[in-house]
Amino acid sequence: MGWFPVFVGARRPEAAICGLRYALGMRNFTNPGVGSDGSMYACVIGETQNGNSGLRSLRMRNSNSIIKIVTVAALLALTAVRAVPTARAAEGALAPVTLRCEYLHNPVGIDVRQPRFAWVLHHTERAQVQSAYQVLVASSPELLAQNKGDQWDSGKTASDDSTQVVYNGKALESDHSYWWKVRYWDKDGNASDYSHPASFDVALLSADDWKGQWIGGANQLRQEFTLAEAPRRARAYICGLGYYELRISGKKIGTNELDPGWTTFEKRDLYVTYDVTANLHHGANAVGVMLGQGWFKSRVLLLQMDIELASGKHVSVTSGPTWKAKNGPIVSDSVWDGEVYDARLETPGWDLPGYKDDGWKPAEIVKGPGGVLSAQMMPPIQDVDSMVPLALTNPRPGVYVYDMGQNFSGWVDLHVNGPRGAQVQLRFAELLYDTGMINRENLRGAKARDLYILRGEGEEDYHPRFTYHGFRYVEVTGYPGTPSLDSLRGHVVRTAVQTTGSFVASKPLLNQIHKIIRWSDLTNLHSVPTDCPQRNERMGWMGDAQVSSEGVMLNFDMAAFYANFLRDMRDVQDPDGTITDTVPHRYGSRPADPAWGTAFPLICWYVYQQNGDRRILEENYDGLKKYVEYLRSRAPDNVLRYSYYGDWVATEKTPGAEVSDFYYYYDTLLLAKMAAVLGDAADAASYAQRAVQIKDAFNKEFFDPKTGNYTTGTQTANVLPLFLDMVPNDYRWAVAGKLANNILYEHNTHLTTGLAGLRYLMPVLTQNGSSDLAYDLAVQTTYPSWGYMLANGATTVWELWEKKVGSAMNSQNHHMMGSVDAWFYEALGGIKVDPDHPGYRHIRIEPQMTRDLTSVSATVGSVRGNVTSSWSHEPGIITLQVDVPVNATASVSVPKSDEMTDITIHEGDRIVWEKRHFVGGTPGVTAGKLDGKRVVFEVGSGQYVFRVTGE
Ligand code: BGC
User: Fold this and answer.
1) For ligand 1, atom 11, which residue shows the shortest CA distance?
2) How far apart are the CA of 312 and the centre of ligand 1, in A?
3) pTM for the complete prediction?
4) What is the pLDDT of residues 572-596, one digit of tens each?
């Protein structure tokens, strides 16, 4: 797949600069997002060769870059010109694009019998919807090209569903490929062309499809085999634990790293499917697999290659006792501790046919991990980008310290030339001492070091395979000679989700905060959302996951990832309904702290809200019900009191019981809503009723009407009940007032919240008409604030509000305090999914124009297509540009500033509001009404530019 630039907010000259930065940054970009000064560079979304996209910038290091800029500018202009017209050339209903199956683009290896399809629609007219669709699924590309859906022809199906369309054809078969396409009819009955074809491969649907045996015995396993003919189609299904690298005839297969994803191995093991047709040949072939320990802490392999030969004959190559085993150059590997690689132990040619494997012993038949084998159906971990070091110092003789300029997860590629047996040690750190030496006190027990032992035959390149580090600094010792900046390259390694959202504001500090949040979110995606990527932890802590997940979903294409994580949660659930603090469970407790366990219902609900994914509710409902019933068993008087961490890492303490009980109420409320969506009226009614009882008990237990405060009166204590509208009506404003006073006067406009309170603090202030105050907190620069972190050199979000660099718990890269990013999109950008019309079927555009902000541009890549809200505010003029995808409608709430009276609102060059009345007749704008200080227009799909002017 190629890449293309999309300019957002290109009114600004920086947009063009950003485009150049992006293009130049293909190999060695530094940061997604904005420039280090926070200025508005974040304006290009591109897609790289490997399908990763991002907002990028380049650290330019010499004047040659200027020449490159000119060249690239020309290229960019051409690409941009090419990219836009292809989507826009035709008139009316354009062929659907962005075809996805189970949220994935052309997935190779799904194990769902009734997969779901989604597509994105474009239309040259406004207010368009799909009135019908036709999906064709064929068993060959040729049949599809002839418009023959031999597997499924939905016929013209009257429906406005363009997502979550369930396959309803002939039974899909294991180890088969399918091709599909779709067309649609618009609201006037005009048909689009068919889309370009897409495909999906069904992997192994049942346990009986597996023929191989689990083997082990060494960290390199090999097998040779002969094919009587060239293959026509070949798939490799592999589960290599803890991690594997699959090699065929001398080449690594695929670009996955640290694969497969981490699961509760005794319950479920993910296998990965590769199309290896092009890697196999008539005659002799060899397959080799390297194994790492990963989280499994042992090495086992199950592999099956199903090959269809040119004649149509099927053969399989499977792991079994005829395989050979021998330990290779990886002497040790550990997620936390790093890798020791002795290049002298390499076995050149071992993955080629004809290799003399005399010294190898037979592979051992071993016990498998015991879990159900499931296809890995989420973006894999990949080496997504490289980083050029910013600086190299030599703080002590023989000790070299590289500064990558950015904290991230991954590894470095070492380039070295030296004598055989020389040992180069790489140690990783987030911090430096004043002496310039690396400070690793906060890594706790993680050794976080790689050791490379040279083979001594000229230029050598090394990066580890089965470990990763969280770091900004790298210490190199033992390097033969003097290393240069070019001796190391950083590699960002993480789950390769695509960037779908963007947020840019006129306030540089907000962009900088957004940038460090994005880095923390992304570099903590390692098949599960980890808490941090550096110390001896890296766990799927559920509290961290639940607070960040909505913001993460607004930034990246996360549905498949979170669907997998929700299944991981089901896998840890015990029959009594309990789940665990970390998923998979290694650290923390069972039952989970309720503020951690709530990740199960909350993430499920967010996935539903963002994608309109009813199946995610169906799949999880029973587990969620058991979970909520467990909570109930712990709350005989309707108050859930048990808590371990509560409002974790707050600067002022709120009783844990209040936090837990708040989530008990939230979980119960959500269960009632889910039951209603799923049509279980009895459950919906009983959980709604239970929720009322919990709310009443909560107020009795924690609210003091005399003071107007909940419990200790901290920000968190009052924010939680305000967020879910739990406060008795008569006291609502009193409690909101207490909160505002606490922020303003008791803390001089600073927050005091931890993980739980922070998640809701800004939204509550906005709900209560205090977006200005929320904004003041967001742009605060003294402790505790994100500005304070930035002022102290943060390039990712800290774990603590405090600046700590000692041996305590103080990760420099923790995403949980980045939960504010959702508020950036939803309040400052103003893009909100309407809870009653999930999946952006109906959108609420409600931007908050606060204080000195003069513009914000936000885009969310929804399941229906891009939703954009981009506004600017100058004296006397407010402009709001909105993009609403086909098949969606929106209520666009256009603000006016206080000093504006007698306003007129134009959309394009037509008046839509004048003399306090809606003026009809503008295509797509169906209604408008005054709502307090705003005028709310109802619009259909299309792009709109509203301009408010007034006296
Ligand atoms: C993790 C947190 C986590 C917490 C539980 C820590 O060690 O890093 O992010 O949520 O434990 O209290």
Assistant:
1) 541
2) 55
3) 0.92
4) 999 999 999 999 999 999 999 999 9
